[in-house]
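Ticket #4471: structure export looks truncated?
Reporter: QA, pipeline team
Priority: medium

Steps to reproduce: submit the single chain below to the structure queue and open the exported record.
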Amino acid sequence: MTLQSIDGAETSQQSRTRSLVRFLERFGLLIVWFAMIAWFGYLRPETFLTWGNISTILGSQAVLVVMALGLLLPLSANDFDMSAAYTMTLSAMTIAVLNVNHGVGIGWAILIALAVGTLVGFINGMIMTVFRIHSLIVTLGSGTFLHGVTLWVSNSMTISGIDQKLVNAVIVTRLFGIPLEFYYAIALAAVLWYCFEFTSFGRRILFVGRGRDVARLSGINTDRTRVLCLMSSGFFAAFAGVLYTGTQGAADPVSGVSYQLPAFAAAFLGSTSIMPGRFNPWGTTLAVYFLVTGITGLVFLGYGSFIQEMFYGGALVIAVCLSQLVRGRQQQDF
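Actual output as written to the record:
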């Protein structure tokens, strides 16, 4: 065998190895998810692998999927939105107060709630860019303020009796046995994917996230891009509030807090899959169902409710570490 043929064989082997590594990076989480389903199905075939359980897992996590998707926009631009959970709660409470206490039609109540969420994002973005304050501080402060507003307008009480039309459109009506809210979340993920992949706005977000100063010198209005990201995040959080209200038929003044940590865990874990190194909608959606499948399976095995906090908290730390490894341990400018 000649030296040239040996070099060619080594090059071919290295190419196959790189292709395998790239494949595992992109679809590793999906493979582990299927393995997890198979394992829990083997241990609890009579309960875990039923269509009722699967449709419940898919249909019950739309609120979390939508909120996590909203976080992708500011995260891609190197900003945080710590007010998303509180915006979601304020949106849900806005619908409840207007519809139940003041008799406003459910359609108008939803539109006003979405406008409120977008306005919150706009104010966050303006404070952040005009006064040059870190997004973490601005959104943490505004989130706490919104929590106070929510408690004020609701008298710290749960408001029930939401118009049945919203409940029907969110959870009662089903397609293939899965509530419609699941399809709303998938549709939003598709819209976000299209935005990132095929629009100049999506490209600008990624450019700003990779290097804000370079983007500014290249002629991109970085401040406007960041404000729009915060506004989009506010809209998504408000839409998650609409879905929550439709799911519960009521609004709870502290409901959104439990979604904050899982949403960030899903966003970071999703950035290690499908498009490794980038916050991406399909990876985030997959991460939500990966986490929920793990928790559901462990509960079926007899673990208590504490496992949820442990699973989400541990997943966030591991996801951030994996995200950094995929990025080549680059310094983040958060």
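Status: closed, not a bug. The export was complete when the record was re-opened. Leaving a note from the reviewer for reference: The first strand starts at residue 159 and ends at 160.
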